[in-house]
What we know:
Blueprint: H1 8-20, H2 24-31, H3 36-39, H4 43-56, H5 60-72, H6 77-89, H7 93-104, H8 111-123, H9 129-140, H10 144-150, H11 157-166, H12 175-187, H13 191-198, H14 203-206
Helix pairs in contact: 1-2, 1-4, 2-4, 4-6, 5-6, 6-7, 7-8, 8-9, 8-10, 11-12, 12-13
Amino acid sequence: ATLSGAEPTDQAWAAFELEASHQFAASVDAWAKVPAAVLASRQEFERSRLRALAFGAPGMTTAGILDEWAVAHPADAEVRSLAIEAWMRAGQSARALKVVEALVSLPAATAADRLLYINLLVSTRDARAVKAIDSYVAQFGCDDRVLAEVDRLGDPAGTNTMVRLLNTKSCSAGPRWIKRGIERTVALGNHATARALLAKLPAAEAGTT
Length: 209
């Protein structure tokens, strides 16, 4: 599409269509020619430009632009996710964490939001991961998703946390996780703990461990 001589609103719709058809780099160039007033006239224009930047012009500058929007529009989960990905791709995990920290501080933070936070903490080997896991379990329970994050933790914190959760009455973990706890404790040479976990397995499952 050519934007030469087009009305500003037509330019905006042309840029929008380029982004919608995944021609992101071309859309970035097109949005750069749209007057700021026109861009700000419709939120769908601004969000289209942000998506185009995320996929067509990745880097620190784009990450900062996406971050600013996410802070100003906390309900915009899509752009917030793009901001997190942009910071991670730029090698700025600490900045990505700040975006997620702002999210989980909201009263409406969901289980998925908190799992994303835990995932980033574990990925960056942040010491706050165990506390975040405990907070999640207290609010949402001991489900497969959080146990999968626990299993990504290095030792000794990973095995200690898994064993502690598996020994919590409120944690209704299935045989899969009990077996994983046994594997991890045996690997650390903690056979007494492994035997205690083995006792939690149903008889049919215990025979296969």
